[in-house]
Specification:
This protein is of the alpha/beta class. The protein has 20 helices and eight strands. The protein has helices at 4-18, 25-41, 46-60, 63-66, 71-86, 114-129, 145-156, 169-183, 200-213, 228-241, 258-267, 288-295, 301-311, 314-326, 331-343, 347-352, 370-381, 385-389, 396-406, 410-432, and strands at residues 102-107, 133-138, 160-161, 187-192, 217-223, 245-249, 271-275, 283-285. An eight-stranded mixed sheet has the order 3-2-4-1-5-6-7-8, sandwiched between helices. β6, α11 and β7 form a beta-alpha-beta unit. It binds guanosine-5'-triphosphate (GTP) and magnesium ion (MG). Guanosine-5'-triphosphate is lined by residues 108, 110-116, 139, 142, 145, 194, 221, 249-250, 252-253, 275-278, 282.
Length: 447
């Protein structure tokens, strides 16, 4: 996971100060020395680190902390706020032109993820904003580039504009915009060519496309794995082309995160989206505050809830809540729930968004075994209706029958029954009180 090292170090550091009833200047100094090291080690630009440490230090020894009743907590709040500011403060929106179509140019080095991101962005625009984009194949240099975008268009069932590789990208952009007007596409996403390094010829071409198409956004796509280099690339693209925002890709990899933390303050251009995988739905709007929370181990419940809302049937969710409250949750509901949760994406990803989850032992290399999940499903499906509602009635001979029917073992049946009971208990607690994220070590029955 991205930011793992940084998150670990920062969390250890703030842990030491958290409960302090009194915070002295030397406590702050000591903490900031560790914060500084953590950031440098995460490959954050040294000047950015220097400014950050200065800001936090000033605030941390100031009135707002020293006079407060919980100085330890207050220092952490300052760290979180400044980390949020560092990444851009507010979440920034995508432009909408008053005179459609809105034109977006995708630029960046070779392999950064421009073409993939073009597809993902089109998908997001349709899904989240109900838009109808036209994809434009303006990379005529790399042999398979046009085909790649056309394939994405096919997968998405969206139009792709191309004039082959014998027409200049400038002309392609021009005609594409005309076509979009005719066809009432409200967004035009221009996928441009990449080079290995910043190069004059490419820049000239991009400037020409910009001049002619007058884009509402120029998104620089950068690979988060390239660390410090990403910052340099962002700087020169910004100086030469005037970008409006950054898309940081491959944040699903184990990048140390330095780029994410430096780009904004070095270029003063916002990170608008982050790429979290190769699939077409793996693009997310960038939320500085949520990211800061995540890095500091405060979890990202908001993203988790949004993910749930996007994927879980609302009616069913309400029904479930009711059931949990009245404790009439059965194995059938569980099976249903399993299906819904699986729709939300890989479980280990979801779990990582929970507050404190990265502190649970073994969470880092947790892998949820799909085979085990199917075993759980098979076991439940082998129960009778009555057994599903009243698992207490499942005696030894019933267990044997269920194990046989599901192709599993009595031990596995036992384990599931036990875990189901524990889960019910835990759910009761969660619905009964305001959870403070303290419940550790809970395991889903299929882990
Ligand atoms: N894991 C991961 N892979 C990504 C992400 N975004 C892009 N990729 C992968 O990165 C590789 C390059 O992506 P492209 O979209 O072809 O990059 P490009 O910038 O268009 O490259 P050129 O057209 O050659 O300049 C592909 O294998 C993508 O699947 C991401 O967010 N996460
Ligand atoms: Mg490409």
């Amino acid at each position: 996971m991205a930011f793992e090292g940084l998150a670990d170090r920062l969390q250890n550091t703030i842990q030491k100060i958290r409960g302090k009833g009194k915070v002295s200047e030397s406590d702050v100094k000591e903490m900031m020395r560790e914060v500084r090291l953590a950031l440098l080690e995460a490959d954050v630009n040294f000047k950015v680190v220097k400014d950050f440490v200065k800001k936090v230090s000033e605030r941390a020894v100031g009135q707002e902390v020293m006079k407060s009743l919980t100085p330890g907590q207050q220092v952490i709040k300052v760290v979180k706020e400044e980390l949020t500011n560092l990444m851009g403060g507010e979440q920034s929106q995508i432009a909408v032109s008053k005179r459609p179509p809105t034109i977006i140019m995708m630029v960046g080095l070779q392999g950064a993820g421009k073409t993939t991101t073009t597809g993902k962005l089109a998908n997001l625009l349709r899904k989240k904003y109900n838009r109808n984009p036209l994809l434009v194949a303006a990379d005529i240099y790399r042999p398979a580039a046009i085909k790649q975008l056309e394939t994405l268009g096919k997968q998405l069932n969206m139009p792709v504009f191309s004039l082959g590789d014998q027409v200049s990208p400038i002309e392609i952009a021009k005609q594409a915009i005309e076509k979009a007007k005719e066809d009432h596409n409200d967004y035009v996403l221009i996928d441009t060519a990449g080079r290995l390094h910043i190069d004059g010829e490419l820049m000239e071409e991009l400037k020409e496309i910009k001049k002619l198409s007058n884009p509402d956004e120029i998104f620089l796509v950068v690979d988060a794995m390239t660390g410090q280099d990403a910052v340099n690339v962002a700087n020169s693209f910004n100086e030469q082309l005037g970008i409006t925002g950054v898309v940081l890709t491959k944040l699903d990899g184990d990048t140390r995160g330095g780029a994410a933390l430096s780009i904004r303050s070095v270029t003063e251009k916002p990170i608008k989206f982050v790429g979290m995988g190769e699939k077409l739905d793996a693009l997310e709007p960038f939320h500085p505050e949520r990211m800061a929370s995540r890095i500091l181990g405060m979890g990202d419940m908001l993203s988790l809830i949004e993910k749930a809302q996007a994927n879980v049937d609302e009616e069913k969710a309400k029904e479930l809540e009711q059931k949990l409250r009245t404790m009439s949750f059965t194995f059938d509901d569980f099976l249903d729930q399993l299906g819904q949760v699986r729709k939300m994406g890989p479980l280990d990803e979801l779990l990582k968004m929970m507050p404190g989850a990265n502190k649970i032992k073994g969470m880092g290399n947790l892998q949820i075994d799909e085979k085990q999940i199917s075993h759980v499903e098979a076991i439940i499906q082998s129960m009778t209706k009555k057994e599903k509602i009243n698992p207490e009635m499942i005696n030894a001979s019933r267990k044997k029958r269920i194990a046989k029917g599901s192709g599993t073992s009595v031990q596995e049946v036992n384990r599931l029954l036990k875990q189901f009971e524990e889960m019910k208990k835990m759910m009761k607690q969660m619905t009964g009180m305001q959870q403070k994220g303290k419940k550790k070590g809970f395991k889903f029955p299929f882990m």
